[in-house]
Amino acid sequence: IAVQLHTGRVDPTSFTGELLGVPEIAALAAKVSCAPRDYPTFPRSLPGGVLVELTDGTRHERHLGHQRGGEHNPMTSAEVISKFRVNARAALPEADAAAIEAAVLELTEQPDLDVLMTLCDAGAAGLT
Q: pTM of the prediction?
């Protein structure tokens, strides 16, 4: 929550030592608490919410009954591609991530999954 408030995003790079060492993020994190809440859409979906109380007492609250990217709250194709790029590049060299992205986007034109599987195997081998 603190990283989201400070940077405006949360992705795999949000949990690196670099961001964890930012004093403003640590100060925000010290003000964050968590409380369970029942949602009628759970367990079919992974709902959640946030309540932010400002120093002047103003409260802002938002809840999502369905996780972003799920059947009931879909992402656009552009959002899926963007999310893939951020996540893949956190684990793979940029060229490998780009090759896998291109292979996935061309799947309907391929006779089988061989090209994609070869790229994924090569990427996984590079992680060990």
A: 0.74
